[in-house]
Structure formats: structure tokens, C-alpha cells
Specification:
10 strands; alpha/beta; 11 helices; single chain; elongated
């Protein structure tokens, strides 16, 4: 099902053949898994022709067949999961649907990633993150598989429901193929943003890891200094077992922040709050309390404070960690 092609080698045919590529999927009502699977292919081959049919003769001649045909074989670009026994399951139990089969095919996914971003070192990491964040939920919904921890008391408008909502209603004249095309356009945008987010997250993890290794960033015990802001919370909680109590970083407004490290993912608790005497102070009141001439504010919840300069925020950090 999965090949080992390197980035850019997912499709062996030259560019003219790519433009003539025929991608087949079933006609009639569509769902997120077939829409997203087609969208992934179309990101690489935007000029490909999409044929929606169940005619076995047409399926036999198509270069790629998605969610129909009863065959799961990535070597011949057949990505269906409706055959007896399905098309396999992930290690966590989530069964594959059409989108997952395409995304698990390293040839196709490497081409998708290569199309969307060029400066990636760990392709498999990005592939896995997008699978966890986007693909698995779509596959699970299509297979009627309830993912662990799925909350049903308050119905959510899921990605799968959004895509299903593109199907014409009983009283509309819109053609199914036209509606399918509109859904694919949205799915392409969602895949693009999911990949971009995963790439940015991996880069942020690398920046946090580098800062933790940097001796200069540790001159103030318990304070991690980031010279450029990146989303640091998840990476730090994975990489740092408890030594860092605060993170210092530049704000988008040009001044600097010190923020308390949460005690667990998603928690409002803190490994160490900012000083109680700072709570809710701003401007001159905070300057007087801290002795830092450019101190700006401290949130009443004592989880974040600011100063105009790096020097000023580090003075506040030294007091906070004492």
C-alpha cells in the first residue's frame, strides 16, 4: 500500500502525462474522504481530469481510482476501502478510508508536501502530523469509527459534515459533479493550511529545542529565552521536564513578554506564577514595585507580564524566579 519514493518521485510520468491524468471516483453523493483524496491528487496535478463514475470499464482505464473499485494497492494507484476486510487500520485502531490511503502513500504525499513547501527536512514528521490532525478524523467518520474521547453530547460541525453539506439538497437543481468540484476546492485549501501548520509547528519545536541547548538562554536559571517568538508551549512541555518556569520572548508589538510555563498541556495551572505583588499592576505602579523603568503590565492572573526592552524583561525575570 505504501511505497518509499523520495520527495518529488510520487508520480513517475512526465509533466505532459500529468496534465492528461485521469482521476476516477464514484458518482452520486460524496463524502469528505473521497473529496479530500481527490483534492490531494489535484494539488499535485491541477490539470488532471476528474471522472465521477462506477463504470468498471472507465475505472480500469483511469490512472488513479479513489473510493471505488474494491482495490487498495498504492503501487497501481488504487485507493478504495469498501472491499471485504477493508484496507487496513492504523496502530491506534483508526481504519483507513480513501483519504488516508492516499496520504499514507509516500509517493503521492511527498509530491503534495513538495508542492506546498520546499524547505522541509523531516517529511515523515509532517506526514504524520497532518494524518493525526486532519486525515484520521475524516477516515474515522467515513468508516463509522468513533475515536476515543469523541464527545457526542454537543454536536460539532466537523470537516466531514462541512464537505457533506456541499451535496445538493433534494430541492436544488445543482449537479452533483459541480457541487463535488466546489467541495474539492475547499478541501485543497484545508490540506494546504494543515501542511503549512504542521511545517510551522515542527520548526517551532526545533527552535525551542535549540534554545534549551543554548547556554546563553540559561544564564537565568529557570527562564528560557526565545529571541524570536514561536508557539512554544507544547514543545517545551514535551522537552523540558520541569526546570523552566518562565519563558521570555519578543512580542509582535516590539516590546517583550515573560510568561509562566503551564504545569500540564491545556492547563491553566503554572509551574510558578509571577510574583503576587505584581498582580494587576500597570505603568508607574509596576515600575515602582519592580524597579524596572520600562515595565508595562502584569496580568491579574500572574501568568504574563511585559516590559519595553529585553533588558527590562530580564530584570523582571530575575525577580520572578528568585
Amino acid at each position: 500500500m505504501v511505497n518509499t519514493n523520495t520527495p518529488g518521485e510520487g508520480i513517475s510520468t512526465p509533466e505532459p502525462a500529468r496534465k492528461a491524468l485521469v482521476v476516477a471516483t464514484h458518482n452520486g453523493v460524496f463524502h469528505a474522504d473521497d473529496v479530500f483524496a481527490v483534492a490531494a491528487i489535484m494539488l499535485v496535478c491541477p490539470s488532471a481530469t476528474v471522472v465521477r463514475t462506477r463504470d468498471p470499464k472507465v475505472l480500469e482505464t483511469a490512472a488513479v481510482v479513489i473510493d471505488v473499485g474494491g482495490i487498495s494497492d498504492g503501487q497501481v494507484n488504487r485507493f478504495d476501502h469498501h472491499q471485504k476486510g477493508g484496507a487496513g487500520v492504523r496502530a491506534n485502531g483508526v481504519p483507513y478510508a480513501a483519504f488516508g490511503l492516499v496520504w499514507a502513500h509516500t509517493g503521492w504525499v511527498w509530491d503534495v508536501l513538495g508542492t506546498l513547501c520546499s524547505n522541509v527536512d523531516d517529511w515523515a514528521h509532517i506526514q504524520r502530523k497532518v494524518d493525526e490532525r486532519l486525515v484520521q478524523a475524516i477516515d474515522a467518520a467515513d468508516n463509522g469509527f468513533v475515536m476515543e474521547g469523541d464527545v457526542r453530547n454537543t454536536p460539532a460541525f466537523t470537516v466531514s459534515q462541512v464537505i457533506s453539506g456541499f451535496n445538493p439538497t433534494w430541492d436544488e437543481d445543482t449537479a452533483f459533479d459541480e457541487a463535488f468540484g466546489a467541495a474539492v476546492t475547499l478541501a485543497k485549501a484545508i490540506i494546504t493550511r494543515a501542511v503549512k501548520a504542521a511545517v510551522a509547528e515542527v520548526a517551532a519545536e526545533a527552535a525551542v529545542a535549540a534554545a534549551l541547548r543554548d547556554d546563553e538562554s540559561r544564564h537565568c536559571t529557570g527562564v528560557l529565552v526565545l529571541e524570536k517568538f514561536v508557539p512554544w508551549t507544547d514543545a517545551l512541555l514535551r522537552l523540558d521536564t520541569g526546570r523552566s518556569k518562565f519563558v521570555v520572548f519578543p512580542a509582535e508589538t516590539g516590546d517583550w513578554r515573560i510568561q509562566a510555563v503551564p504545569d500540564a498541556p491545556g492547563s491553566f495551572g503554572m509551574r510558578k506564577p509571577l510574583p503576587e505583588s505584581w498582580a494587576g499592576l500597570r505603568g508607574a505602579d509596576l515600575v515602582e514595585k519592580t524597579g524596572v523603568s520600562d515595565a508595562i503590565f502584569c496580568h491579574n492572573g500572574r501568568f504574563i507580564a511585559g516590559a519595553q526592552s529585553r533588558e527590562g524583561i530580564m530584570k523582571m525575570a530575575l525577580q520572578a524566579i528568585a
